[in-house]
# Entry
Amino acid sequence: MIEVWAALFGALLYRFRGHNWGIGTQANRVIAAHGFGLIFLCASMDRLNIACTGSAPACAVVIWWAYALIAAVFSTFCWLSFMPGHGAHQRMHKQVYDQHFETTEALTFWLPQLFGPWRQSWDDSLKHTYQMLGMSFIGLVRHALMAVPLAAFTNGFDWKLFLCMGLLHGPAYFIGWRVTDDWHKAWKKWPLPFRSGNDFGELLTGALIGLSLVVSL
# Structure
């Protein structure tokens, strides 16, 4: 059951992160990052042994360890809020490929060397591949940076599984764009944060992050 709640909460957090609430993009990211930290803490609470039944020095060490773990988790997910963006790769449908947008991010500077410069004449399947590969690589890097302290402070954390799930960010966005191909105008009957293909891509990616935090324990 905790896997379901982690996925649902993660989906809402990542959509919150991407929507313009009028409080600033970075504020959105920091709030969402702490939310993901809370998911991990709830899932790993059984790893915290704060019951002090021994000597005073032993109790002090146990309490320090618990607080060190909590601090590490929250600082880890603050990294998520400040990492390079993925905006260049979030469009994944033929209806939006004719819009003007950057085709690389700081982490994907190498894509044009692999595919050549982005061309509107490319087949849609090649454009999809380019975009998914870029998003998946960014997902891998993000999960790698998060995994370092989580693996160091948590016994039994499966960092390999966590990294592999980072590679699914690209397919998650691609599936989101299959829900609706419009950038801003579709699904008008839905609340504002859930209208475009990108919105649904963020929901699926957030669900993936939340789920990966739980299943990797």
The longest helix spans residues 124-153.
